[in-house]
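Side project, low priority. Logging it here so it doesn't get lost.
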Amino acid sequence: MTYFFDGSKEAFLTAFLLAYCDERAIVTAGSCQLALGQECVFVRADEEKARRCEARLLSFDKGCMRDLGLLLRSGEAGRGQTAYRYLKLIASRKAPVRGDLTEDAVVAANECMRRVSFELHRFKGFVRFMESASGALYAPISPDHDICDLLLPHFRGRIPSIPFVLHDVRRCKAAVWDGAHAFTAPLTKAEVVLSADEEGWQALWRQYYASVNIPSRKRLRQMKGYMPVRYWKFMPEMPAAAVEALRETPASAAAGQDDAPRPRGSS
C-alpha cells in the first residue's frame, strides 16, 4: 500500500500510524509510480492521532521530532519514506537509533538531514538582499530544501532594526521580519520597487568581488563546489554572462591544473 500525505508533520504522523503494520508500506509526499495492482490511499491529517503518535515517539527518543522536522523539509522525492523507515526503527526498538550506522534507514536519514542542514548553513552566506524604496530589504532565493523560515532567525539577529523579506520563489512562500514580528506567508510573485541607491550598492559589491578575485588562480571546480551554479541567478556578483561562460566551460578544463592544490608558499 502506498500512503500519500500533504507534506505536513501531522499528516505524516497520521500516515505513520496507518502504515506501521504494513510490511510493504510506502509513505510519500510526492508523486509515485504505482506498480500494477498496487493500492494507494490519500491520508488527511488527524490531529488527535498525530498528537498521540508524537507523544509515543518522543517517549522513545526526545530528539526524534527535530529530526522529523528536518527530514520533511528535504526537497528529495523520497523524504517521506526515509522519515518513515527511520521513525519505524525508533518505534520498534523503543530507543534512539541515530548512532547506529549499521542500519540503512539510519544512514539514509542522517544523510538527508545533513544535506538540509548544510544548505541552511550555506544560505547564511548566499542570500543577497536588495533595498526597496521603502527601506525594507528583499531577497529572492531558490533553495533545494524548504529552509526559508529557518533562515529568518539568523538574519533577524544580524539586522534586527530593518524589515526584510526572504522569498522562496520555488515554493511560493516568504519569511518576513517586520521589525517587531516574524512570520511566514504565501507569496507567489513579488512586485518590488527598488531604491535609487540599489544599483549603486550592487555595482559596489561587484567591484569588491572583482578586486579580491585572482584570475590567474581560478579554481572553477572548487568554486562550483562551494557555490553551486544553481544558486548564482540571485547573486549580483555573478552576472548572466559569467554564469553562462562557466556553465559552458568543458569539464576537462575545469578539472585541470587550475584546480590542483598548490604547496604552501608557491606562486
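Brief comment: Residues 104-126 form the longest helix (23 residues).
Revisit when time allows.
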